[in-house]
Specification:
Bound molecules: flavin-adenine dinucleotide
Shape: globular
Strand content: 15-25%
Largest sheet: 5 strands, antiparallel
CATH class of the largest domain: Alpha Beta
CATH topology of the largest domain: FAD/NAD(P)-binding domain
Low-confidence stretches: none
Order of helices and strands: HHHHEEEEHHEEEEHHEHEH
CATH architecture of the largest domain: 3-Layer(bba) Sandwich
Helix content: 25-40%
Radius of gyration: 22 Å
Length: about 325
Amino acid sequence: MEKWVTQRTDDEGVLAWFRYFGWLYGATKFPPTDFSAGALFTTFKRRADANDGTLNDLGYMVSGGCGAIAGPLVEAIEENGGEIRTGTTVSKVVIEGGMARGVNVECQKPVVPTHIVDTEFIAAPIVAVAVPLWQILNVVSSHDLPPWYVDRLRFMCRKSLNTWTLTYVVDKAPSFPITDLMCVPDGPVTGRPWVAAILPYAEQPGQYAVTAFLYTAWHEPPSYFDRAEAGVRDEMKALFDDWEREIAQLFPELEENLVWKSRSIGPSSIFENPGNVGHNLISMVPSMVPEGVDNLYFIGERTQEAEVQGIYGSAQVALACADRILES
Ligand SMILES: Cc1cc2nc3c(=O)[nH]c(=O)nc-3n(C[C@H](O)[C@H](O)[C@H](O)COP(=O)(O)OP(=O)(O)OC[C@H]3O[C@@H](n4cnc5c(N)ncnc54)[C@H](O)[C@@H]3O)c2cc1C
């Protein structure tokens, strides 16, 4: 891709644009050819189509932070007679006769780790499951779905692109331009490519949040889904330690002006690789309308209706689901 672009332009801005989006959409260390130029252009096209033909709104940050969405969402739910139960685990979606009937929620906390807690049934005419693809079978029994569908779900849901983030909140404006994105093509300690974004920190005027993003593919260790193993957690910690050392070396001002920092990692989407891109990928992931069950919707990251990855993709699915429910 880099070669193809440099044969056509030596404009540093254009090169930086391709590098950044190449990484953003799935640049992991091994193997570099996994994410193809075709996939990148397809992703741009989907994104542009979802944005009235433009690429103006390519940011994935919610201004004010994700908390800025929660307030109005809670208000809208409560105004419409809804009740919100936080800290309440859904044990299972209750499906009878090929129809979702409601959910069983856990109604107590385990007293001892081996305790199987009681559940309470909440009846509902429609159930929208908002957990991501890799958690659907935690709340929907595989016995309630067609076997071929469960098989495909199990296969796809672990093909994740895992996002590692390091967030630094600093009390002095960084010397690099705010809202610009920094690309580090080959970190001197990790040997990995990564990017970072800077935004004014919504919680505290005068502070800035610098978030660095690094990706690993499902086939690269350490394996996120095996994190219950102490050895895997050690490997995760080692990568974060190396990465922090690298950041301290490249951008010492972040440590010098630090208020706090935090680490996080998790699957953020399904990883695109040869044979698993564009329309092929879309046909492999489930639709928001699952097979074989009525009145049930899967609206989490990432179903066929999500044209792009991330929060924007989840929002697209939620809106498509709302339209569909209101039409029916
Ligand atoms: C480290 C990291 C950084 C990321 N950074 C960005 C970014 O900068 N920009 C971007 O656009 N995207 C980013 N993403 C991706 C983004 O977080 C996801 O696309 C988005 O959160 C998906 O939203 P969702 O509502 O579909 O699912 P989620 O946010 O995963 O929400 C699912 C919810 O279901 C709950 N849940 C699960 N099981 C149960 C149960 N049994 N009972 C009750 N509740 C349950 C979970 O607790 C969770 O709150 C990042 C992801 C990760 C992991």
